[in-house]
Amino acid sequence: MAGMIELDGSVGEGGGQILRSSLALSLLTGRPFHLRNIRARRPKPGLQPQHLMSVRAAASIGQAKLRGASLGSSDLSFEPGEVVAGKYTFAIGTAGATGLVLHTIYLPLALRTNAPSEVTLQGGTHVTTSPCFHFLETTWRAYLELLGLRIKLRLIRPGFYPRGGGVVHAVIQPCPRLTKLRIREVSPVRTATGFSAVAGLPEHISQRQARRAVNRLKQFGLNAVIREEHWDGGPGSVLALELATQPVPTLFFGLGARGKPAERVADEAVDQVIAYLQSGPAGVDAHSADQLVLPLALAQGASEVHVAEVTSHLLTNIEVVRRFVEREITFDGVEGQPGVLRIA
C-alpha cells in the first residue's frame, strides 16, 4: 500500500468537502490518508453527525481501518480495503444531509465493484448548505450520465431541518470506465418550470412562494410555470426552479425555515437563477462544477468545462484531487467569477 497522505482540513474552504473527497479518493486509489484540523473553519469544527456518517459509510463499503472516527473528532486516519457492492443502509440520526453521504460513496461503488449496489440513506433531504434531493435527481444525476455513470434515485420521504427523518433510496450501477466531458457553453433559456411544496404547513405558504417566484421571473423576462405540491411529513417548505438548459437541466432552490417569510424562500431561488443567467454565457452551475472535478479526474481523455462561478469548494476539491491522482488539473478564472476547468 502506498504511503499515508497527510492532509490539513483547515485549508481552502475548510469544511466537510475535504473530508468527503478524501474518503472517496482513498477508496478509489487504495491510498490511506491522515486528515487533521477537520472542518476547522466551521462554527462547530470536527466531525458532526453527517460527516461521521460519511466516514462510517466509506469504511463500511470499503472495509477500511479507522482511527479518530468519533463525534467532534478533528483528527482522522483512514486505511482503505476492498470496495464491496451490496445493500447498505446509513442512518445519520439527525437532519444531516443524505446527499453529502451519497457524494462520498457513489464513485467507489460504481468504479470499484462489478455488481449493482442499493443504498438507503436516512436524514435530511432538503437542508441548507447541501444539494437537495431534487437537485441531485434533476441536475447532478444527469451530468453523471454524460460521464457513463447510471444512478437511480427515489425520494421515499422528505426530511427537513431540524426534524430530519427523510429517506432516499439509490441504485448505483457498476461503471467500467468514465468518459471525458466538454461543455463550453450552456444554452440560453427563456422559460422556467418548477414546484412550490409544503410539508406539514398551511397551503398559503406554497401559494405565496409560487406567486413571488412567478412575478419576479416575469420581471426578469422569463416565463415560469410553477406547480404547487403538498407532501407528508415536515414541517418544511421548498421552492425549486428548473431551467431547460443543455446538455442537462439546471435546478435551483430555496428552503423554508422557522420565522422565514415564504417570499424570502422564493427570492433565494430566483436570485440564484438570475445570477446564473447573468454570468453569461452560462456554464455549468457552481454546485455541479465542484462535484464534477473528482469523476473527471478519473475519466479517460481530456475534459474542459466552463463554469458559471468559481467557488472555494471547486478550488479546494481540485487541491484534494491533486494529492491522490496524477492528472494535470488547471483552471482559468478567479473566485466569484466565471471560469474554465481543464483536466488533461
Q: Name the shape in a single word.
A: globular
- Oligomer category: single chain
**Which structural class is indicated by helix and strand composition?**
alpha/beta
- The count of DSSP E runs of length 2 or more, i.e. the number of strands, is 16
| Main sheet record | 4 strands, mixed
CATH class of the largest domain: Alpha Beta
Counting structural domains, the number is 4
The CATH architecture of the largest domain? Alpha-beta prism
Give the low-confidence spans.
Answer: none
**CATH homology-level superfamily of the largest domain:** RNA 3'-terminal phosphate cyclase domain
What is the spatial order of strands in the main beta sheet? 1-2-4-3
Using the CA coordinates, give the radius of gyration: 19 Å
CA-to-CA gap between the ends?
26 Å
Strand content: 25-35%
| Separate helix tally | 8
Question: How do the SSEs run, as a string of H and E?
Answer: EHEHEEEHEHEEEEHEEEHHEHEE
Helix content: 25-40%
How are the SSEs ordered, and which strands pair?
Elements: E1 5-8, H1 16-29, E2 33-36, H2 49-62, E3 65-67, E4 75-79, E5 87-91, H3 98-111, E6 117-123, H4 133-147, E7 151-157, E8 166-172, E9 182-183, E10 191-199, H5 203-220, E11 223-231, E12 236-243, E13 250-255, H6 262-278, H7 286-297, E14 303-307, H8 312-324, E15 329-332, E16 339-343
Parallel strand pairs: 1-2, 5-6, 9-14, 10-11
Antiparallel strand pairs: 2-4, 3-4, 6-8, 7-8, 10-12, 12-13, 14-16, 15-16
Helix pairs in contact: 1-2, 1-3, 1-8, 2-3, 4-7, 5-6, 7-8
Description:
The protein has 344 residues and is of the alpha/beta class. It has 4 domains: 1-83, Translation Initiation Factor IF3; 85-176, UDP-n-acetylglucosamine1-carboxyvinyl-transferase, Chain (Alpha-beta prism), CATH 3.65.10; 191-276, 2-Layer Sandwich (Dihydrodipicolinate Reductase, domain 2); 283-344. The protein has 8 helices and 16 strands. Helix 1 links the parallel strand 1 and strand 2 (33-36). It is globular and about 55 Å long. The two termini are 26 Å apart.
